[in-house]
């Protein structure tokens, strides 16, 4: 029996940062490939004209998913409350875009800044965890006021020292203790951190509202060592009916390439990456 899912692709596969001027042509291409959804990575909300992007989405009959970017200036575990304020302001802008584009949740590793990977004393780690929980509870309130949820994404140990596994994400959601707190799992990070992808998906269970995939080397789905049967078993076990998005990155943007350590192209072209990845996923889902 086919998996009852839709397929999306991240704007990060093609461009960075996403901005209004690229929306029409990019959405046309993504829709022509056969994707149902586009995962819009909002690095700088000031570059995004929400109403114009909404028009472009409607023109190409695409649904949007919104994913955030969390650098040092957007860190809810920082010791400086002004950094929290900056992060809250950014999240609020992203939540407003979600509401405008009829997106049901805002996704990303919003608990801390990407790249914070340190050996901390247990007391300091506990303090940062509690600070993340407290601030994300406030984010959940902000989301719920707009009829939205948030999807918390675990990152691998080289990109975060706070939330690395599905188990960590479940614990954080439970500690936040708000109905808007949900989970996003990313296959690239799972391939590093999880002993079993199937078990990780089952552990997230009904809290899992979004899934990102690529190969183990962050390349085109179907070309590497990923255990796709484990994905299928896990998703079927929890009755997953959400979106599966291809997420990787263009190496053309030097800042982004350094952030995710992609030093060379992972496919013949980014278009071929997306098209062949979607062809594989559609066959796999049958």
Mean pLDDT: 96
The total of beta strands comes to 8
In CATH's first tier, which class applies? Alpha Beta
Tertiary shape: globular
Low-confidence parts lasting 5 or more residues at pLDDT below 50? none
Strand-residue proportion: 5-15%
State the share of residues found in helices, binned by percent: 40-55%
Classify the secondary structure makeup into a structural class.
alpha/beta
Distance between the termini: 7 Å
| Major sheet | 8 strands, parallel, barrel
CATH overall fold name: TIM Barrel
User: How many helices in DSSP terms?
Assistant: 10
What's the CATH superfamily, by name? Divalent-metal-dependent TIM barrel enzymes
* Elements, N to C (H/E): EHEHEHEHEHEHHEHEHH
Pfam family, one: AP_endonuc_2
GO molecular function: isomerase activity
Protein name: Sugar phosphate isomerase/epimerase
Keywords: Isomerase
């Amino acid at each position: 029996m086919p998996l009852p899912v839709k397929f999306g692709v991240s704007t990060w596969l093609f461009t960075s940062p996403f901005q209004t001027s690229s929306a029409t042509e990019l959405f046309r291409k993504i829709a022509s490939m056969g994707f149902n959804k586009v995962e819009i990575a909002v690095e700088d909300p000031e570059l995004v004209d929400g109403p114009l992007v909404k028009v472009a989405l409607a023109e190409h009959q695409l649904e949007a998913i919104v994913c955030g970017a969390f650098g040092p200036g957007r860190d809810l575990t920082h010791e400086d409350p002004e950094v929290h304020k900056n992060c809250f302001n950014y999240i609020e802008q992203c939540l407003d875009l979600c509401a405008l584009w009829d997106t049901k949740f805002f996704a990303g590793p919003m608990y801390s800044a990407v790249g914070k990977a340190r050996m901390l004393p247990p007391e300091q780690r506990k303090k940062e965890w509690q600070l993340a929980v407290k601030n994300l509870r406030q984010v959940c309130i902000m989301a719920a006021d707009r009829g939205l949820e948030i999807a918390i994404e675990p990152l691998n140990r080289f990109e975060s020292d706070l939330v690395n596994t599905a188990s960590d994400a479940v614990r954080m959601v439970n500690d936040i203790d708000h109905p808007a707190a949900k989970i996003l799992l990313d296959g690239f990070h799972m391939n590093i951190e999880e002993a079993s992808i199937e078990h990780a998906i089952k552990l997230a269970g009904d809290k899992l509202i979004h899934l990102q995939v690529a190969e183990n080397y962050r390349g085109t789905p179907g070309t590497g060592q990923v255990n796709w049967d484990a994905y299928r078993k896990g998703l079927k076990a929890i009755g997953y009916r959400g979106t599966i998005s291809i997420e990787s990155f263009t190496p053309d943007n030097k800042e982004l390439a350094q952030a995710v350590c992609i030093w060379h192209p992972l496919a013949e072209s980014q278009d071929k990456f997306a098209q062949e990845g979607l062809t594989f996923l559609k066959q796999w889902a049958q």
